[in-house]
Amino acid sequence: MKLRWLLPRILGIALGGLFFYAGLQKHYHPYEFAEAVLAYQLGPLWLAGVAAVVLPWVELTAGALLAAGFKRRSCLLLLSFLIASFLVVMAVTMARGLKIDCGCGLFFQTEVGWGSILQDALLLAWAGGLYWWELKQGPGARGQGAVASSQ
Asked: Where does 29-68 have alpha helices with state H?
């Protein structure tokens, strides 16, 4: 019984930690991240600037909250949306033939290509699997959101 609770918790901490780390790298290297966003050539300059400012904070916050176990479903939905959006952006970039760094902000630079798409597809499956597990457990299974029956 504990393994059914412990494994998803560990996987949530690890996924949250990855996004927290990625957001931290983008936050501490804002010019490099802004250049990576601009390299996608998907919108006006001001929109790239907004993305370069907002995305690190979204990753930092959602990653930290997920790792802490707070609002797990919301964090998983938000991170899944980010990953899915980025998959679309990378697919469009590949179709346009651009050879650029993905700007993921993890452990090493990765060019947009099948490797980065596979990496993000695995992250999406990871987040989606955790979200599905959370839905299956229900609101009272973790002790959060349960309403006292004595009311």
From this structure: 30-39, 45-68
